Amino acid sequence: MPRIKLGDLNLNYDQQGSGEPVVLIPYLTADFACYAFQVAEYAKHFTCISLDPRGAGASDTPAGAWSIEMLADDVAAFMQVLQIDRAHIAGLSSGAATAMWLAAKYPDKVKSLSLHSAWHKSDPFVRTVVETWQALAKYLGSVTEMAILGIFPWCYTPELYAEKPEYIDSLAEFVRGRPAQSLDAFERHSDAVIAHDVSSHLGNIKSPTQITFGRYDMITSTRFAEPLMGGIQGAELVVFEGCSHAPIYEKVDEFNQTTLAFLLKHAG
Known about the structure:
By secondary structure, the chain is an alpha/beta fold. It has 11 helices and 8 strands. Strand 5 (87-92), helix 3 (94-105) and strand 6 (110-116) form a beta-alpha-beta unit.
């Protein structure tokens, strides 16, 4: 995979397809491959550029405290080095948080904005859940195993576990096959998630925006729909039934069809 240098930071990324660029920002613990099911469809119409955030995948892990705003600055610098003046920006969970900061700070860089399982400001529930993940990661000594035991049950419905255990197992093996995030990188990234608050900047987002939630998501539930819709002018809302935090894996075809239609609508 190619790597580019942003000052003292080297970021790894993957590029597939052709057409207008779509930049896909991974979620907490994940690298670029987390969007494999989406890239398979998006790349038929767009150039899909998926990056490893700092501290994930094959990207560097620089010292110091991180913030979601800093991760957005990384993406802006990444686009500049690749000479991408403007792109469709998409992210899930902390990837969506990063995408919001990018669209708020660098509106000219964002042609459309796709926010999946997003939240504008961490509340006590989000903080409690993420702090539980931090404690479990330290106890297990493994971010990978923490993600499978601790994060998976928040991402998928009980019905998926009961009806398709082999699919859950395949997702777990996929995660085990990716580069493992260090405990240090996870702690700093998850601290940034806990501190996330872009609420006062939502009005700066001017690009066409699609906001999606899973109906049964508890972490970033539809309690965040009203402030996001109220803060981002003209945003459209989609709720995926029968899904939790990760419709990208639970209802792959429906998610891809819905999100691709939005991207195509704002292409050209």
